[in-house]
Amino acid sequence: TKIFTPKKEFLNQIAQNDINWFTTDELIEVTLQIDNEAKEYFKRKESLSNQKIIEEKDTHFIISTKVSYDDEILKLVKYWIPYIKIIKPEYLKKKLTSVLKEYLTIK
Hints:
The chain has helices at residues 8-16, 39-44, 70-79, 90-104, and strands spanning 28-35, 52-56, 60-67, 84-88. It is of the alpha+beta class.
């Protein structure tokens, strides 16, 4: 009958974490362009807990967010196609393009 006592440094790290997933690795900063048709959803429901609106235009808005791993953002972007686009980082744009091309290829 042992009692688990977490280390204070871990509790502090969890308390300061403002993203959906937890990692000890460096976070990935992502910039997204979102059509205004989906704007209400992204403003009302925080799918990306640390999103910051960088720019707002008549047709779209740009947000910045940080994620723990690639699939965290790729799954969200795939769900919201065609209303959302990855602006940065370039390697994530290429990864998404590759996934979509593979999906569309009939074997």
